[in-house]
């Protein structure tokens, strides 16, 4: 008896793969290769002098440092938000759940202007914070707040499906065996959600590193103080220093590639730990 042939919605493998490679090359590979080609015109000494200039190094420290801290904060409070949305029913829950996705839909420039209006010296909160010595807008703390704002949904949306699949019976069994609440969390719940939590952190961190629109308004762009790396690239372009801009962009590109590779490894680990098929 002959086996029935498989019918696929898409065309054969050769045609589908050919289209995929062409489309991927036009949209991703060719633009990125242009960065490599443009940077190749620089000598090694010139390249190092551009990417290790004191002003650029200060922007690396601020961009990566603030992104790392924002990712950690989002991991903590994103978990709490996801837990509340999954485990509890309360009035306005659907509204809160929808508001979490707001940073996805809101233009980044609008977010930056709104945050500046709130935390500037004459803003709703800034007018009370600055006299107390807490300068938020036009300083690194303002950048941190902007990065937390745009990165929070990545953590919440990554954790929610895992928490929804988490069986409450596991917690009940742990409690019946005499475990305290903190023991149940650290020994039962935390190992299950850890892969998703790390993935959400990595996604929020990657998003924050390349953020420009929401940060540029609240940062103040003070040299050596509140300049982010994407701003340094824009500044080089405005000075028609295309090779210098691509050199800094290449550093960001390499770091982003490493980060994306780590994200994929974390997702594979999460799939293996939770038994999900990828």
Query: Within the CATH hierarchy, at the fold level, what is the topology of the largest domain?
Result: MetI-like fold
Number of domains: 2
Low-pLDDT segments, ≥5 res: none
**Distance between the first and last residues' Cα:** 33 Å
The gyration radius over C-alpha positions equals 23 Å
Order of helices and strands: HHHHHHHHHHHHH
Compute the average pLDDT. 85
**CATH class of the largest domain, please?**
Mainly Alpha
Largest sheet: none
**CATH homologous superfamily label of the largest domain:** MetI-like
The count of DSSP E runs of length 2 or more, i.e. the number of strands, is 0
The total of helices stands at: 13
What portion of residues belong to β-strands? under 5%
Q: How helical, in percent, are the residues?
A: over 70%
Task: Based on Cα principal axes, name the global outline.
Answer: globular
Q: What does this entry show, briefly?
A:
With 278 residues, this protein is an all-alpha fold.
Q: What does this protein structure show overall?
A:
The chain is globular and about 65 Å long. With 278 residues, it is an all-alpha fold. The protein has 13 helices and no strands. It has helices at 13-39, 44-51, 54-87, 93-100, 102-105, 108-119, 126-129, 140-165, 168-176, 181-209, 213-219, 229-238, 242-274. The longest helix is centred in the N-terminal third of the chain and has 34 residues, at 54-87. Helix 8 (140-165) packs across helix 10 (181-209) and helix 8 (140-165) packs antiparallel against helix 11. It starts with 12 loop residues before the first helix and ends with a helix. The relative contact order is 0.13. Helices cover 76% and strands 0% of the residues. The protein has two domains: 12-41; 43-274, Orthogonal Bundle (MetI-like fold). The model has no long low-confidence stretch (mean pLDDT 85).
